[in-house]
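ESCALATION

Customer reports they have been waiting on this structure for their group meeting. Please prioritize. Original submission:
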Amino acid sequence: MDAVITTYEDGLRDYHLLSSRACGVTVVVLVLLGILLDYVVYPMEQSRFVWARIITSSLIAVALIALYTETGRRHVEAVTFAWLMLPQIMIAWMIFVTQGEASLFYAGIILSIFAVGTLFPVGHFHTLAFGLLTLFSYYLACTLRKDGIQDTSQFLFHATIILFATSGSAVFTYFNERIRRQLFQLKEEISRKNSELAETNANLVQIKGHMLQQEKMAAIGTLAAGLLHEVNNPVNYCLMAINVAQESSVAKVDATLDECLADAKQGMQRIQNIVSDLKTFAYRSREPSHYGNDFPLEGAISSALRLVGHEIKGISVTRDMPEDTLVHGDEAAIIGVLVNLLSNAALAMRAAAGRHDSAEFFVAKPAMPHICLIVLSRTLPGPASPELKPGTGTERFVATAPNAEGGRVYQSRTRSRRS
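Update from on-call: job pushed to the front of the queue and completed.
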């Protein structure tokens, strides 16, 4: 709120500065045009009135020049109020040298008060002060004459009209200030809403991009699952052929042939496992039930280890977990998290301590039921105290970076067959 007020005050000062310059030029022109009025009303005083108008216009011009200085910009309201009083003083002097309370220049005082209240860039306190000073100037112009006030009733009538004009202009200026402040606040609110709308639109564009990317990845996953299924068929044919060949009498007699068939069978089984892991990782059904199935955590870890076998080559992996640990969730998503975790951790460990680290998985059951901890750590020479930070499954997964220290902990809802 303070920032909005400060911005409003700065904007109001700029508005006063611009308006003061424009109104000052207008007043200079009107004061000089008043020479024609002097010729019509008081032709015998025209020479003195011309000089009075020239001097007043020159002083107003000096004040306008001051508004272009740093001091003038900083005190724009005071400078504006000062040059606004110059025409009033000039008119009061003209009243003094002509007819006093009966002078026709009384109308010029009233018009000046209404103009300040409706058109000029001053506040309601300034308008009130301007009117009271004008009334005081009119009083001095009438009382300091040689004969003083001749018609008291006319003087009181004119003074009352000046007070009415001052009060009306001050009230008008007060509500004008309130409206100006409300308009400024509305402008600030619209600007803020536009900024929020622009940010929301940018977020929507980003979300749209993410959704399109997810659709592309889902399509690629479906395509990959179909291709892997086609790859799996010839692998099954080869395994069947190897099994038949191993049962033949020739393979039983020839030890070398039997060993070659066993190696080929092992290679085919490895291909079959990789294809199965890739199908699990790549294919995710759109049915909601597939996001709430129970699956063995050890199987998901084994699949992830096989998929990142190249990245973790040379790094020892130790698993210590019960075989009956079931995880409730999306198996493909969990495997994706583990793949990222293992590959990034392997990169971090190699960058930090060479290629002789040991990555370890531990699964334990704390006091809280249905919670298991998966800990990825590394073993370095000498004492170590890794900092473990809890998270939750795929929602708070933090991939380790090359500057990672210690380990990460990920939590997932689980249940055991024994429990």
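Sent to customer with the following note: The mean pLDDT is 75.
Escalation resolved.
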